[in-house]
Amino acid sequence: MMEGLFDSMNWWHWLIVAVLFLIMEIFSPAAFFMWLGFAAAITALAALAIEMSWEMEFLLFAVLSVASILIGRSWFKRHPIESEQPALNERGVELVGKMAVVETPIVNGTGRIHLGETTWKVTGPDAATGQKVRIIGSQGSTLKVELID
């Protein structure tokens, strides 16, 4: 039964697979399905130009998939995408340079500050409640601060 299904495969089936992969790419957080879509599109062109068995078409698709993924990965390693806002998903990095007031005393290097609508864990020199501090860095969800005289 499956043999008959694959025997009736045409070039436009590969084109549909390519479009489906590209649609899946839209909903994917990583650039992966795009490369499979390109491989399926090239397989469609090859199937249109050359008479091939379905086994050869699948083999071509598999080889092109691996090749396109490897080529894409190496391309993006050499040409990374630069963002206009590189700290967009790193809230702590965006806060560097801002000033805040100590909410919970910094004792033995740890305390809390209130900044905006959020309370942050901080590390830095010991400071009393109400002392002003400047954020100088972040590590995960913990901010590094220095005292302001």
Your description of this structure?
This protein folds into two domains: 2-78, no CATH class; 91-147, Beta Barrel (OB fold (Dihydrolipoamide Acetyltransferase, E2P)), CATH 2.40.50. It is α+β, with helices and mostly antiparallel strands and 149 residues long. A hairpin with a 2-residue loop joins strand 1 (99-107) and strand 2 (110-115). The mean pLDDT is 87. Helices cover 46% and strands 23% of the residues. Strands 1-2-3-5-4 form a five-stranded mixed beta barrel. The chain has helices at 2-7, 11-26, 33-49, 54-78, 91-94; strands at 99-107, 110-115, 118-123, 132-139, 142-147. The chain contains five helices and five strands.
Give a brief description.
The protein has 2 domains: 2-78, no CATH class; 91-147, Beta Barrel (OB fold (Dihydrolipoamide Acetyltransferase, E2P)), CATH 2.40.50.140.
> What is the structural class?
alpha+beta
Kindly report the oligomeric state of this protein. single chain
Q: What is the number of helical segments per DSSP (H or I, 4+ residues)?
A: 5
| Strand order, sheet with most strands | 1-2-3-5-4
Instruction: Work out the strand percent.
Output: 15-25%
Number of domains: 2
Instruction: List low-pLDDT spans.
Output: none
Tell me, rounded to a whole number, the average pLDDT.
87
Total strand segments: 5
Please give the alpha-carbon distance between the first and last residues.
81 Å
Sheet of most strands = 5 strands, mixed, barrel
Radius of gyration: 27 Å
> What is the element string, with H for helices and E for strands?
HHHHHEEEEE
Give the overall shape. Answer: rod-shaped
- Assign a percent range to the helix content: 40-55%
